[in-house]
Amino acid sequence: MSVGYSVVYHDGHYVPSAAAVLPVGSIALRYAVSVFEGVRLYAGAHGAVTAWLLDQHLERLRNSCRIMGLDDDECAEVPRILRHLVEVNEVTGDSYVRIAVSAGNAGGIDAAAEPVLTVTVTPSGRKRWLADDTGMRLTISGWSRPGPATFPNEAKNISAYAGPRLALAEARRDGYDNCLLLTVDGLVSEAPTATVFLVEGDRLVTPRLADAVLPSVTRAWVLATAADLGLSAAEEAVTPDRVRAADEVFLCGTGIEFGPVREVDGAAVGSWPRRPVTARLVEEHFAQARGHKPATHVVLGLEGVHR
Q: Transferase among the record's keywords (predicted)?
């Protein structure tokens, strides 16, 4: 991972990155109570960097805070904090912002959480799937996402990534670049840090939120943008066989941006490297993110999602 910029925001102060620490006895470290968002900064035509879909990310962050019992009052300060970090660190290129709200106080498993806000910025360009136009080798994992009665999948909490981390490590040991996790019922859910879309003819299909899927901001953008590109888009139950039979497959998310998939379990996807729908979405994404075109109006629709 790239080294981040030297100045970060942590617990009310702008400090060197090495000073942004939590106590060893904090609830965040003992019980994994820490929610976060990743936000992309993109350099525009005139050199200024802009946070892409920041409002939607902050909406989801507040929702995660409510689910995990963390006060979300400081979320309103994030735009101001981010502007200062960009200025003091002299950020001019594409970057990745991590915004975390963590339970920084000590206590037992039932103790009330006292939130600590941390904001960091790290230079970040394209992953190799886009930079080198290589395409991912994907596998369907034997690991599954938890059901809604086990953990609320709509909370972007660090504990939700422990199982997917193991699944990704296993996939890479087996020679794959990434993997798809299944629901407990055997339906396709999502990748460890990204959502998945299939292209079937002129239709875009992605698993339903009910299939243990995080309400992804990039997912919402793709669904909202599809109509502008003359595509229909649907959220449906997706089986592993349906992924293998798709004309195109891609992963998307803030960190990965877009990850075109060239193979699933060793079999070529569609007519790879031909992937016209994915290419149009990638082109549209960067045109909007860099301010060359108006941004699609994106609604996450989180009302009623949390329990």
A: yes
